[in-house]
Amino acid sequence: MSPREHRGTIFVEDAELLAQQEFPGRQFVIRLRAPRCAAAATPGSFAHLTCDPLLPMRRPLSIMRADASAGWIEILYKIVGPGLEALSKQPVGATLSVMGPIGRGFQASPARPRTLLVGGGVGIPPMVFLAESLIGRRDAEWTPLVLMGSEIPFPFRARPSTLLVPGMPAGAIACMPLLDDWGVASRLATLAGFPGCFDGYVTDLAAAWLASLDGKMLGEVEIFACGPTPMLQSAAKVARRFGVPCQVSLEEFMACAVGGCAGCAVPVVTENGLAMKRVCVDGPVFDANAVFPPAA
User: Fold this and answer.
1) What is the pTM of this model?
2) Does 90 map to a domain?
3) Confidence band (pLDDT; 50, 70, 90) for 8?
4) Which of 52, 146, 281, 284 is the most buried (most CB within 10 A)?
5) Is 237 inside a domain boundary?
6) Helix residue ranges per DSSP H, the chain
């Protein structure tokens, strides 16, 4: 991305806090009236949010849903420091400054409509956004499968899925109700023993499902993943094992979030060799092999 390519696509607006819902594990889902951000948001993009008028530093948070017609965005966050602690105390009706949408999102090809979406922890939101986007597209017969992993309670009340998924390990029946209601299959994985969840890492669940597919089906699969770095590294290995492409959304600490400070730069393999790329505007989505190349 050139230094000027993202200009004119990122908006700063005063957003009204419409709702804030708390879930176990100090997790929250907020809805903000931010019409300019909502109209331009794409799956994988994020917002840089002011958490409190007294805190100058914004926090980068993935967009989980966006409704352009109603003008709102939803964000899932987990309290990990004083900034998000302050955000959790904001009352409905509060005004928060939102800068966004920022970043290059996921690019799903109609040639591979059997999409496998893998989200871990706070990497779940972009998967929800991508799933909703895919079922709204008419350029292919999209059949997204969303796999989510967490070691703390999920930020929703899980229930047994009404949708069958051939190739799923026995006992893996829990789903995200919102996705199930949309007709999007989802399954959950954990090491915490939650009922109905796959007992293991979410990438192990992904591998188990991929192993059930024949060659033709694998030729229609592409993996999209967001979560902690070790999970993304594992997703990249799983994708190489089964010979399917994979896009990953990286999580990095950010200061400006618009490409100026380069504090979020990571090494990425390009056609011209290794280069430092900014996660905020060159990503956060990259080809998995570019950021997690196979060992020599």
Assistant:
1) 0.94
2) yes
3) low
4) 284
5) yes
6) 35-40, 82-88, 124-135, 177-182, 202-211, 215-218, 229-242, 288-291
